[in-house]
Task: structure prediction
Amino acid sequence: EPKVVILLFASGKLVCTGAKKEEEVYRAVNKLHKTLEEEGIIYYE
Result:
């Protein structure tokens, strides 16, 4: 698992820090996206 910190703002923008490789950023953001969908925080109209 990438050890990164993600700050997610109400505007939808995010800041990701702590990744050593670009691939870790993609993995962390994809994991966050999946978790938010599972919790019903992200939904599509």
About this structure: The mean pLDDT is 92. Residues 5-38 form one domain. Strands lie at 5-8, 14-17. The longest strand covers residues 5-8.
